[in-house]
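Recap slide: TonB-dependent receptor, sequence and predicted structure.
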Amino acid sequence: MDSIKINNKDLKLSYILEDDLLNLETVVITGNFNTKTKLESSTSISSLDQKELSKIAPRGTAQILQNIPGLFTDASAGEVFTKVYTRGISASAEDDMGWYYVSLQEDGLPISLVQHSYYAPDLFFRNDITTSKLEVIRGGSSSITAMNTPGGIFNFISHKKRNALGGDIQLQSGIQGNNNMSYKIDASIGSPLGNNWYVNTGGHYRQDDGARNTDFTFSKGGQFKFNLLKENSRGYFKFYGKLLNDKTNRYTGVAATNWRNPQPVFGQSFKSTALMMPEFNTSIPDGRNLSSSNNFNPGEGLHAQDYTFGIDLSQKLGKNWTIKNNIKISAKNANWQTSISNAFVSLSNPLAYFITGAQFPIGQIVFRNAQSGNELARIDNSGILNGEPFQYLTEGRLPNDAIMGTSTWLKDNETDELIQQLTLKKQFENHNLNFGFASGLSNTTVFTQGSFAFVTYENNPRMLAVTLENPNEPTIALSDENGVSNYGGLFFGNSRANITQLATFANDYWNISNSLSLDLGLRFESITHKGSNDGYEPFSQDGGLDGNPNTDYDNSVLKPTGDIDSFNYTYNYISYSAGINYKVSNKTALFARLSRGNKAPELNYYFNNFTNVPINKKGEIQKINQIELGLKSNLSTFSIAGTLFYSQLKNIGTSNFEFDENTNSVFYTPIQFNTSETIGLEWESIYSPIENLKFSFNGVIQNPKTKSWTIYDANGTANTTDDMITDYSGNKLPFNPNIMFNLATEYQLKDVSSFVKWQFMGEREANVANAFQLPAYSIFDLGLTYKISNNISTSLLITNLFNSEGLANFYGANSFGASANGATKEFIETYPNTSFIVVPVLPRGTFLKLNYKI
């Protein structure tokens, strides 16, 4: 309440602040060239402030984005190897390219411009309390405001300046899954330094045993972030940086049976099974230089390092001109040491022996525990080539009479990048004009190597040292002492590339009247990929790499041939977007938007699709057309924002990963170019009937379809004479539910606040054949916060309260090299009782936080 004096009389003024339930009056910067409130923006935009972010369990970026309406997010693999997409724009975002169409950003610039298999921006992002806000654009203007990103923008914004010394320190501990512990400490502190200088620093360190059972620490490491801000009368100058040094991993699938109602099999559990190689240390010959070797330990997982420094500058130039430039450089490294695939391989399957690289491992096969040296089983496989089953020769048995079809997976990626965006703004009476130039330069290298590994097929896998011990013959080692076989013989890739992305853009925000505005944008983008892949062949020498004929595990190391398969292609395209916003009142607005976006190929096009063959053509530019109609309304007790959308995605290149049992080789099938379309309604709403009680409801209803779609069937071999192409046009688009939503209630009583949230994921088709459906599932989260004092609070967060066994993903039949698309209706009818691989959602996690506000 304020006092003013009029005609020598004191008058008291009282103010009533109305709740802005959906933050529609909040200014947003993402996806807009001009700062606007959500209500004024002609985009489909959502945001989460620091209070909302604090209510989300710390399980990675995709877990956070599950709270945004209209997004499909798959966090089942953990913090990385996640999938995020919008409005059915998803086809190339499956498997290991989960961020294909969208941009993950920090403070307005992409985290990285490079994407390919096992290399995506989520590898280099860890959220903590240095984030003050998340802004999300779905489709629409993302085509003209970000690089090669038509599907959406996810911008995590750091704290800016504090006018007094302040911040937060947060301690966190938790239990996940089968009593696996998690610990984390966060800090964010800022202060003025005098003379309009301000500093913010912070970061975190964590150690996490993971949500599923492994014999190694699943995640450990942390990051440090800072920004130094100088303000003057014309604008600001900011120097910022991030140092990330973190190790984590990703979960593979679990075996199930019963296509109509999937249930875990082979003693596995949807709640706790990880089915990954245990931790061990070994050295595997480096195919690039056979005189050297690479250290390998599957307990290391992904070691992500990111050293980023940048300058953000904004200055008024006079006569209503403003210049803004944000530029950063980074050095990134992602080193994967993990296992790939965990398929069931029967001991009656010749693959169990011939994948070792040995020529004729027939006779008495001995399996020993690689750690203890104790013999576990001895078998005779002499009749296996005649279709006869193996025979146990002693009382020892292997679990499930099988081994795991798995490979060591070493990927070493290094990338140096420069990313910049310069914008010039000119403000007229009714127009805000923006002109700009964006650029990105990336230099990246990637080396991939895979070796077969003998592992027991059971809940807690063990490494197996395997030998061939026929009477009166020398003992032949089919694996080394750690259980690794066929050194470097399954996968080899050695590639490098330079990416140059250049874009110019123009935008006019025209205030036609006080209630009507028009937003027009145009972007020209040019992307050049220049690089090469090394050709490769098996090492050929009697006795293998070590010259010893009794060690068969080093006989087939893949090495360069000396041939270089080069590529140098440029992709040019124009994108545009036009939006109109009509303010019905100060509380309600309508908007419409028409957009045409483009998506140039990512580097996986060259690295994956042209293995050991010349790169004879450039990839196709995918075309994205979108139409949006939206309503935003902010009433006293009820707020809603809804968008009706249509999206079409054309020129989708699809290819399957295949394994040829005849040659023990892996390959990708020829690319098919397809089209999908989706129509739907996304919404978010909040109702507050009384002051301390809120109900929120957000989600999407949609109809995702394959307009024209074909799949290449290699029939299990690299030989093309028996290949087929199957047409699935008109089917439902895989992994896109018809409905998904979040329904939550929040209540606050004095110093205690609480919430309960229900996340519903509708049934999804598991492949384009529509032969198998992933059932709908529900996840409930609970949160309680108690404010102990003005500076201290404590919170309890429980995610997946009832330990739902929902299934998030599907990898196909439970066999080495199988793919989701191989599970056709005919396959399921022929093999109704076979097992298959699914990826369950993460089990329950309970986290306790103690926060001290400085």
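The two ends are 28 Å apart (CA to CA).
The longest helix spans residues 604-609.
(End of recap.)
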